[in-house]
Design goal:
The protein is α+β, with helices and mostly antiparallel strands and 129 residues long. The chain has four helices and five strands, in the order βααββααββ. Helix 1 runs antiparallel to helix 2 and helix 2 packs antiparallel against helix 4.
Length: 129
């Protein structure tokens, strides 16, 4: 069952991450796996606040054959990403930061997908136990 957590200020950001952490523990992720996934999701949620100001995380436990995992969709209603290829390149930053955001998040999860348009961006990440 998918649960949705708004991300529109620091308090909702923290609440969403706590819920993701709870789901990771319930799904059976060990500490290292959970830390990696939570770091990726934190980056995606931080991007919602930084670039779109509002959005949400949809958290879904997933199961396939004998595997369990967690999927998070980070959805925002910002102006979209002008150049996905550039945004996914190492050390690129549109805001003067270190530029580890999206490519860093991608490295920390098993599956990563991004879709963007002028109406917003959705990033889906998945990891398996």
């Amino acid at each position: 069952m998918t649960e949705r957590y708004e991300v529109n200020d620091e308090a909702s950001f923290q609440t969403a991450l706590i819920e993701v952490r709870t789901n990771l523990a319930q799904t059976g992720f060990n500490e290292i796996q959970a830390a990696k996934f939570l770091t990726a999701v934190s980056e995606l949620a931080r991007n919602i606040l930084k670039y779109a100001e509002r959005g949400w995380l949809e958290v879904t436990p997933i199961h396939h054959l004998n595997r369990s995992g967690l999927q998070v969709d980070a959805i925002d209603f910002g102006q979209g990403i002008d150049d996905i290829e550039k945004a996914m390149s190492e050390h690129y930053s549109s805001s003067g930061t270190l530029g580890q955001g999206l490519p860093g998040a991608k490295r920390l999860v098993d599956e990563f997908d991004i879709n963007t348009s002028p109406q917003g961006t959705t990033v889906r990440v998945r990891s398996w136990v």
